[in-house]
Design brief:
Layout: E1 6-12, H1 17-29, E2 35-41, H2 46-52, E3 58-61, E4 67-69, H3 74-79
Parallel strand pairs: 1-2
Antiparallel strand pairs: 1-3, 3-4
């Protein structure tokens, strides 16, 4: 049986204090034995800037492509 981790992306950009808050929340609430999180800077993609520019930070599941937009808390994160 394979232990496949859930792959998440935190869509953010540098200098965003809300993105910094989201990173801290993720570090406290996620079980990193079950989840991998990569931080993606939307400033490096015109498409991501168009889609998420005013919504960041956004947590996106790579498997389901579901998104969780800020503001989110520990409860919403656990339900996601």
């Amino acid at each position: 049986m394979t232990n496949t981790k859930r792959q998440l992306e935190l869509l953010s950009t540098s200098g965003c204090h809300l993105c910094d808050q989201a990173e801290v929340l993720l570090s406290h609430c996620l079980d990193f034995t079950k989840v991998d999180v990569s931080v993606v800077d939307i400033a490096e993609s015109d498409e991501l800037m168009h889609l998420y520019g005013i919504k960041i930070p956004v947590l996106r599941c790579c498997q389901s492509e579901k998104v969780l937009c800020w503001p989110f808390d520990a409860l919403l994160l656990s339900q996601f």
